Amino acid sequence: MKRFRLPSEIPIEEYPSPEEFINEATAIVEGAKERGITLRVIGGMAIYMHSKEYEDLWKRLKRLGAKVFTDIDLAGYSKERDKIAKFLAERGYEVDQRLLMYYGRVRQIYYSDRIPMVEVFLDRLAMNHTIEFKGRLEKDPLTLPLAELLLEKLQIVRMNDKDFKDSIVLLRAHEFGWDDNDKINLEAFKIQGLFDDWGFWYTVTTNLQLLRSKLDEYDIEESHKVVVRSRIDELLKYLNETPKSKKWEKRAKIGTKEKWYNEVEEWH
User: Fold this and answer.
1) 263 inside domain
2) What range defines the domain where residue 27 resides?
3) Which H or E run contains 135?
4) Rounded to whole angstroms, what are the CA distances from 257 to 130, 158, 199, 237, 260?
5) What's the pLDDT at 189?
6) Taking a C-beta distance cutoff of 8 angstroms, is the pair 236, 99 a contact?
7) Which residues contact 41 (CB under 8 A, 6 or more apart)?
8) Which residues, given as ranges, of the chain have pLDDT below 70?
9) What's the chain's average pLDDT?
10) Residue 261: inside a domain
11) Are 91 and 47 in contact (CB under 8 A)?
């Protein structure tokens, strides 16, 4: 087994193809299911898995490339932590003990000769805002549900270009609805607390407005932009008009005079 290397340290000639990443992610989820373990793909890879029919849009956005995927990000439950570790070890993955000691309660980081890194987030994705997994991982057979995949991007206080592009494709490829059957489930925004947590709501609505204003910066067909603008407007209307809790209203009065998000600690 080679030492743990960050994806950025791996020469391009050794780097796995995008197809290898996707095939392995799928095999992990399906293999885990056979063991009674719940794992789901999250992040940009999960969005791509749900939006392959928009391959041309991905390419026009210049989102695809040799190192388009740097790792496989997974969501799981902490009650299955030991089973997950054993399962991934049997697939040839090794865990960096230093990272395990520091982060192991909430996330596990693995590496192998084939895939440079697999990261498992347990129970929740706690970044600038928190996305809870309880009761949601079972809604899609392979990935986190679409609404949470969108929130995973929109909860970032300082979104980067990759996050904007992933959000564009997700919004172009999927309609809103009230279930998780290949739809962006509007009910999930309530489940994830946006109408109780002003800070989360503010970050998401601010990013949606920013995304709308940035659309013209991308060299994509106007027909795509029209659909994405329409869906952004539809979501903003829903987020603005849905009744909020007393807690939300109280925090809204303070606004941005106090920090409304959590800082994200980077690991090295």
Assistant:
1) no
2) 7-256
3) none
4) 21, 18, 11, 25, 9
5) 98
6) no
7) 25, 26, 29, 49, 72, 73, 74, 75, 142, 143, 144
8) 1-4, 66, 99-104, 266-268
9) 92
10) no
11) no
Distance of alpha carbon 104 from alpha carbon 88, whole angstroms: 14
Is residue 55 within 8 A of residue 149, CB to CB? The reply is no
**In contact, 236 and 208? CB cutoff 8 Å:** yes
Strands, E assignment, 38-147: 39-41, 72-76, 94-95, 107-111, 118-122, 124-126, 130-132
- Do 106 and 46 meet the contact criterion of CB atoms below 8 Å apart? no
Distance from chain centroid for Cα 83: 23
State residue 13's pLDDT score.
78
Whether 106 is in a domain gets the answer yes
- Tally the domains of the chain: 1
> Against a cut of 0.90, is the pTM above it?
yes
Residue 103 is assigned to a structural domain of this protein: yes
